[in-house]
Write a sequence for this structure.
């Protein structure tokens, strides 16, 4: 298997960005990334983002079909988790495709993706959790 076999195809990349191109879905994905690896139940996601449960269910379905999240039953709850491997493959696809292997272009881009304190990478003055005004 060569390295490019593990990268998503262009349609999968389009599906990923289409799923993230809606505010509630983007907020949901960002919230789930912040709660890795334990994940969150759907009801807690809805509460934190102040989204009706039925609306969130639709958004979770779109994110799941795009490969951005997955769920696992724990007792009576479905726990949702971000699929970080899928996001990594998407970013790698873009970097490899856009940079065409040029170290002059790729090295600064890759260095900028490696933040020293990733947990502190939020924008100053903004909430750590999307939609959380508490």
């Amino acid at each position: 298997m060569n390295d490019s076999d593990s990268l998503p195809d262009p349609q999968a990349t389009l599906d990923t960005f289409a799923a993230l191109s809606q505010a509630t879905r983007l907020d949901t994905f960002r919230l789930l990334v912040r709660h890795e690896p334990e994940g969150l139940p759907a009801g807690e996601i809805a509460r934190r983002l102040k989204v009706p449960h039925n609306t969130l269910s639709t958004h979770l379905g779109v994110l799941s079909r795009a490969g951005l999240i997955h769920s696992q039953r724990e007792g009576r709850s479905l726990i949702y988790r971000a699929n970080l491997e899928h996001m990594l493959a998407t970013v790698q696809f873009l970097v490899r495709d856009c940079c065409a292997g040029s170290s002059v272009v790729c090295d600064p881009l890759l260095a900028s993706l490696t933040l020293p304190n990733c947990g502190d990478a939020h924008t100053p003055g903004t909430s750590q959790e999307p939609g959380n005004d508490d």
